[in-house]
Amino acid sequence: MKESELIKIKKETESLKKVVQHLYVENQKLIDLSYGTIELLKEFSEYKEAVEKLKSQVVVSDNPHADKIAQNAEGSNTDPLEGKSLGELFKLKAEMSK
User: Fold this and answer.
1) Of the four, 7, 19, 30, 72, which is 20 to 30 A from 84 by CA?
2) In 3-state terms, what secondary structure has residue 81?
């Protein structure tokens, strides 16, 4: 390989490295923003009601995973979603939508 080609590859690699670093920083900012937003939402009086509404939307009878959720809850008198954060519920809902 010619030296000029190697220099070109090195410059492109450095450029890609900077892009990845920038994406990482932006991702961290989004994580911080979403965490802050959730913490702010917890301060609203309607938060618990909204969480309960979300729980009812996650565990609906036409949900193909509803049986699995019910099986996990069998034998215990506790709600499998009890104590879950709003972020965990959104993640659970997204997983169930797949």
Assistant:
1) 30
2) coil
Are 63 and 32 found together in one domain?
no
Rounded CA gap, 15 and 18, in Å? 5
Whether this model's pTM surpasses 0.70: no
How large is the C-alpha radius of gyration of the chain?
22
pLDDT in tens, 8-26: 999 999 999 999 999 999 9
Tell me the residue type at 21. Q
* DSSP code per residue over 60-93: -TT-TTHHHHHHHHTT-SS-TTTT--HHHHHHHH
Dist CA 11 CA 17 (whole Å) = 10
Structural domain boundaries, residue 50: 46-98
